[in-house]
Amino acid sequence: MNVKKALAYPAIAGILVASLAACSDDNEDKVSDAAGQATSAAADAGASATSGAGDAAASGTGEAGKDGENGSDSGEMKEIQGPNGAVQVPAAVADKYEELGGESSHLGAPKGEPQKVGEGQRQDFDGGSIFVDPEGKAFLVQGKILERYEEQGGPESQLGWPTADEATQEGGWISTFQNGNITFVNGEYGE
Questions:
Q1: Where are the chain's structural domains?
Q2: Are the CB atoms for 156 and 117 separated by under 8 Å?
């Protein structure tokens, strides 16, 4: 129901009641009471319609305010369990976390809330970090490669966003980024 109709119905009913009551000279007090009730009903309907419209707008946009604060424009948030209870994270982070084994994996528990990074997000865990790029793709970076990536400025560095999960290679690991790689092989960095 639109707002105009929600406001009109109680007002029309009040006018009809007031008109009927006005037909008799004995009912002047009833006319005042009916008019007051109609006004009150119309005001209540208006407040309800306004509230409903606001609720509908909020539900149509998801949790945009919360997502905007956390830096994600993709909208959907999911809950994962942390050491102090549930943590709301972008759906891409939650999906990647579950794909990797969740809290029972080497990542362990989430550390705090997601952090805005440029146009994306980052969620830290005990054993690494999941980065969500501006397109909503999530990738794992961890260990020594994560240390080097952070030293260079993370996603806002020349390397840009991760483009794949960290992978093993002979003697170590490799992570690929938009503009290069970081490897940690036989105890040494390579880029």
A1: 3-60, 70-190
A2: yes
